[in-house]
Write a structure and sequence with these properties.
Helix 1 crosses helix 7, helix 3 packs parallel to helix 4 and helix 4 packs parallel to helix 5. The chain contains eight helices and eight strands, in the order βαβαβαβαβαβααββα. By secondary structure, it is α/β, with parallel strands linked by helices.
Length: 293
């Protein structure tokens, strides 16, 4: 591990990067830094007005290197429309997410956290895969350490819903997806790589949007005293996006939320090939998408 930072990013001139959830937080910083080093950045966002406001602050906006396009990960129709309208992409950054929100369902009937954080990105990746030239980076979380993936009830239909376990399940799913995708890429001899990153505990708008009247003020207070800033959190993603790394590498701060950036460990459950393959099969059924290389 090193004291690498976004200042060490290589040139991305001539390369195209899609960043989901790039209108705020980690995604906005990620997109901004990649635009700074010359990338053509596509801000894939649910709220295009917020996306346009974020894009206006980014280098290259006036020259057309930064564009905003609608993507609602809670709607498979929106995911398909985005993928169909997208040409060649060098890097896909699956960054968008929601955290510990009250129970809700997506347009396709999925529990909103697994639907947004995993299934939407699963479908997007599979649909874009033939157009990607370099890598897929998926943003997970330290909360994967507390996650359990229940393939028999992924969408919390037959068990009591709890917001934090649902979030942890979705973040564990991100890592299992990354591992399963890398195995498939290697199986067909693809040069593409699948990687994951986690920001540690970074202060973003997620902590203010839990929908929990009691929990949200606690999180916002904790942000002031314990959290790193979004630039530090995005550093982990940018490292995974830009560095020469083996497939299925997981990037984060050395000491969970602090310290230099580099490869980090994951929970034993995140290394389960059996669970990863079961989740992949279920995700194919639920989204109607499949590995297409």
């Amino acid at each position: 591990m090193t004291d690498w930072s976004a200042a060490d990013l290589p040139s991305f001139a001539g390369r195209t990067v899609v960043v989901t959830g790039a209108s705020s937080g980690l995604g906005k910083v990620t997109a901004h830094e990649l635009a700074r080093v010359g990338a053509h950045v596509i801000l894939a966002v649910r709220n295009t007005a917020k996306g346009e406001a974020a894009a206006a602050e980014m280098p290259g906006r006036d020259s057309g290197r930064v564009e905003v396009r609608p993507l609602d990960l809670t709607s498979l129709a929106s995911v398909r429309a985005f993928a169909e309208a997208t040409d060649q992409v060098d890097v896909l950054v699956n960054n968008a997410g929601i955290m510990a929100v009250p129970y809700a369902e997506t347009a396709d009937g999925f529990e909103s956290q697994i639907g947004t954080n995993h299934l939407g990105h699963f479908a997007l990746t599979n649909l874009l895969l033939p157009k990607i030239t370099d890598r897929v980076v998926t943003v997970s979380s330290m909360m994967h350490l507390f996650g359990r993936v229940n393939v028999k009830d992924l969408n919390w239909k037959s068990r009591p819903y709890f917001a934090w376990p649902a979030y942890a399940q979705s973040k564990l799913a991100n890592l299992l997806f990354t591992s399963a995708l890398q195995r498939r890429l290697e199986r067909v001899g693809s040069p593409l790589t699948a990687l994951a990153a986690h920001p540690g505990y970074s202060a973003t708008n997620l902590q203010g949007k839990t929908g929990n009247k009691l929990g949200t003020p606690v999180w916002l207070a904790a942000n002031r005293f314990f959290a790193t800033d979004a630039a530090f959190g995005a550093r982990q993603t940018l490292f995974a996006v830009s560095q020469d790394l083996p497939g299925d590498t997981f990037i984060g701060p050395r000491f969970l939320s602090y310290g230099p950036t580099g490869p980090v460990g994951r929970s034993p459950l995140a290394r389960s090939t059996k669970t990863a393959e079961a989740l992949w099969s279920l995700s194919e059924q639920l989204t109607g998408t499949a590995f297409t290389l």
